[in-house]
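Format notes (please read before filing issues)

Several people have asked whether sequences and structure tokens are stored in separate files. They are not. Every record keeps both together, in the order shown below: the sequence lines, then the token lines. Line labels are part of the format and must not be stripped during preprocessing.
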Amino acid sequence: MFDLPVLTASDRKAYRQFRKFLMKSGFVMLQESVYAKLVLNATAVRTVAENVRKNTPERGLVQLLPVTERQFSKMEYICGEYSSEYEISTDRLVVI
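Then the structure lines:
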């Protein structure tokens, strides 16, 4: 999750670069400024967190919240509907 300033041209450039980094790193947007990535274990979580730290802009707020697949699959939608090409389930699926 992040909240980055976009007041100046350099702020907007840092925002775009950070967002591109997230997408190239395999994150998917859940909603504006909230991105998620599926990782296999705690070691991978630490690696992803370190990569995010290295690519975080100097200004703004960036937060990481590790959540298990089971916890994520129990997300309740209060308003609106989920629409994505990704299916949320506790089953593991590998498409090659």
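For reference, the curators noted about this record: Residues 9-24 form the longest helix (16 residues). Helices lie at 9-24, 42-55, 69-73.
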